Amino acid sequence: MAFFAFLGGQWFPLPAHGVLHVIGTCVPSYWLTQAAHTGIGAPAWGVDGWLVVAVWSVGAALLAGWAYRRDTKRP
User: Of the candidates 11, 49, 58, 12, which has an alpha carbon nearest to the alpha carbon of residue 27?
Assistant: First the structure.
């Protein structure tokens, strides 16, 4: 969690350009931080934010399903 918080700009603002900004916009913690900013008057998410959160959600669900099936196969 701390790693994703770091990458998502929850500890400090991300730069407007550069590698850290590109990496930050690919993790859901960045978009959750942007959602918090929306509550205080910032513009709403674009398609990018919804796409990143959706892809991470599907990936986490698939990983959880795989782990569950692997665990329940044990005798």
Answer: 49
